[in-house]
Design goal:
With about 325 residues, the chain is of the alpha/beta class. The protein has helices at about 1-40, 70-85, 140-150, 170-175, 180-195, 220-240, 255-260, 285-300, 315-325; strands spanning about 55-60, 90-95, 105, 125-130, 155-160, 175-180, 195-200, 245-250, 265, 300-310, 330-334. It is about 40% helix and about 15% strand.
Length: about 325
């Protein structure tokens, strides 16, 4: 019994050390990011012209903002805290693309004031909150800044996922509807799919050597083994759901998508696979597939997000399940 107690205490101590280490690491990251941002804010910049306080969610390419799912969950969190504080909210999302090219205001006009952003350090102040949700109550931190800061503009750079647990879907749908061009493309694929369908998502990162994201790259034999394993998962889902004729598959690997698309029951959205933080290409077509995948996921009867021990689960299908109000399951396979 004594040895068991000591073992449990050692596990708790190890967890606490790791927890403190992560806090320090992420706080250091945010200090470094805010140092870089502060260099962009100076009194030579044009003064802010707004008369009422505006809170901005900002993606301007001055720092790394992480992927689309990260950006959208941070954006929604800031919006929710602006609603709570009754302060005007605007989105300045201009890198590597303009968000309004894909998403338009729905019930709240977040474009109002979006071009009035000022980097004058007297009028505006930036805050960075990345990867901190597990360690602090990020919603209260953001809310207190909104309420207490006296600058005319407050700029938040964050990937906070607090909103995941606080009516994310409702807030997302208040903010957004697809642009006309995006909606046209969504309708095109829905017609091709032709009825009810199940969506499957596979995130490989750099494992298959065809996508520029962090992580290791497998050798040729290991790649084939992993692809075969995931194709087996796809076939298993089809067998378990024999009443469905169509399955929509999305992934960050064109190699895997090409293999999956060999089956006549599989549908994929064509286009470029990209990551927001790894490109400066602002062309509409470059980022169209990411938004198509997001909205086609959101219209499936159910969404399955797969990972093996080598892979990581993605936030994109989870966001889609929230604003599409669809059943969602994360499945990790050994």
């Amino acid at each position: 019994m004594k040895n068991l107690k000591q073992h449990i205490l050692s596990i708790i101590a190890k967890y606490r050390r790791e927890y403190r280490g992560n806090i320090l690491r992420y706080k250091k990251l945010n200090r470094n990011l805010i140092t870089r941002l502060n260099a962009e804010y100076h009194n030579d910049c044009p003064k802010a012209q707004n008369t009422e306080k505006i809170v901005y969610f900002v993606c301007n390419g001055k720092i790394n903002h992480f992927g689309l799912a990260d950006r959208l969950r941070g954006l929604v969190t800031v919006y929710q805290e602006c609603k709570r504080a009754n302060v005007k909210f605007a989105i300045h999302f201009v890198h590597p693309f303009r968000l309004q090219d894909y998403l338009q205001p729905n019930k709240y006009n977040w474009l109002d004031g979006s071009d009035e952003i000022s980097y004058n350090k007297t009028d505006s102040i930036p805050f960075c909150y990345f990867l901190l949700d597990s360690f602090i109550k990020i919603d209260d931190v953001i809310y207190k800044k909104i309420k207490s800061v006296k600058n005319k503009q407050i700029h938040f750079y964050t990937n906070s996922w607090y909103s995941y647990h606080n009516n994310f879907g409702e807030s997302f749908n208040e903010l957004f509807r697809p642009s006309d061009t995006l909606q046209h493309n969504i309708d095109y694929y829905l017609t091709r799919i032709g009825g009810k369908y199940i969506a499957l998502h596979f995130r490989f990162m750099s494992l298959l050597g065809d996508f520029n994201e962090y992580g290791i790259t497998l050798n040729e034999t290991e790649r084939k083994t992993l692809i075969d394993k995931c194709i087996g998962l796809l076939l298993s889902v089809r067998q378990q759901n024999a009443d469905y004729k169509s399955f929509f598959v999305c992934s960050d690997s064109i190699t895997f998508l090409n293999e999956a698309a060999k089956f006549d029951f599989v549908h994929v959205a064509e286009g470029t696979i990209t990551h927001c933080d790894n490109t400066n290409d602002s062309s509409f077509e470059t980022h169209l597939k990411t938004f198509l995948d997001l909205f086609l996921l959101s219209k499936a009867d159910k969404i399955l997000s797969f990972a093996t021990k080598e892979m990581r689960l993605s936030g994109l299908p989870q966001i889609a399940s929230y604003f599409g109000n669809r059943p969602y399951e994360r499945i990790t396979i050994e």
